[in-house]
Design brief:
heterodimer, A: Rossmann fold, 2 domains, B: 3 helices
Chain lengths: 356, 65
Amino acid sequence: MLTVGGGGHLPAARDPVLFNRSVRDFVAGAPRASTWVRGMSRKRRALFISSPIGLGHVQRDLAIARELRKLHPDLEIDWFTVDPAARYLEREGERLHPITQRLANESRHFESVAGEHDLSAFFALRTMDEIMVNNFMTFSDLMEAEHYDLVIGDESWEVDYYYHENPELKRQPFVFLTDFVGCLPMDSGERETHLCADRNADDIEHVARFPYVRDAAIFVGNPEDVTEAPFGPGLPSIRAWTDRNFSYSGYALPFDPEDFSDTEKCGKSTAYSKNEKIVIASVGGTAVGKPLLDKIAQAFPRMKREVAGAAHDPRGRAAPFARLVSAPRRPRGAPVRAQPLRASRLLRSRPGAGAA
Amino acid sequence: MRRRLANYEADRSVPYAGLTPEALADRALQAMHAPVAYRPVETDGAARAARRIAQVLENRWWVRS
């Protein structure tokens, strides 16, 4: 007999984590075989949960993990994410925990609810309950089966939310990272305004009631990146609340721009010739931006025509302008590397360089 | 996102709705020929985040020096 104190109707929907775990324990019981490693025999390990929505998170997370290894070289880091982030990490030689095969894909969900260059991030988040629960259950199973000294979660909203809903499940330090705080309505419609404020109030209450869930909360950005707008009617300013509940790390770039400041050297190490002007079209790691890429592709012939007509080199022929570097159609493609982007910026900073 | 770009004086956003390839091409060319003047982006963010995480791992932030 299990009684849910303070519960109501539909416990499977209101308290899915408790419900799922209870059903599992009732039906399956304790696992027949398991390994318990003695405390002092355990290696120091961290689990890094990286949001797979796009590729920005995982690139900054890898940069953070590499810095963390400098401080704690003996710390082993396992990654907890899915494609496209998972594929990127594996290519970088990182260890993805095998249990991640069970994760549902948030990135595909975002793509499936996006219109043409149009994504309501709030409703995308709001309609992925089943993904959040599935992924938290996977995480929770892992925490039961293995021991970690630390969990780091970048936009790991499922872990953060269900830890606050089931705080007794937390068994190791948890560091939460994000680059946005609070949901704001994209239009002034009553429904979205109400739902956003409701969700924000929920988060505020969570953090106030269980401050020990987040051992640290890091805003990846700067204070001025956070809006002064309130979380909703009668709710605090997002900036003021973030100041009280987060530390700011500034941007976490996955590369140092200084490494690419030498134009000549940069040009030599890329596939571009010295006089070539480069236009890079980049839309992030999900397929949400594909219509924009298509539009850029349509714009390209005009750009090429305009510049080729305006610029001539001393030999009297049109200067080379650009090739269209195609980006992946699918989110599984490789992330855009820093180097061509830097080359692009540098060439752009020298207008006319291609015209000699 | 636009706010962040603006903080680095790098907001060149264009409304997508109604954007024609021609207008996009013109804006891109305009941007390409304009001087680059955005503020540098800090490069120590990953290290700062890592130090904060390490403090949690070490769990001695409360020791008085």
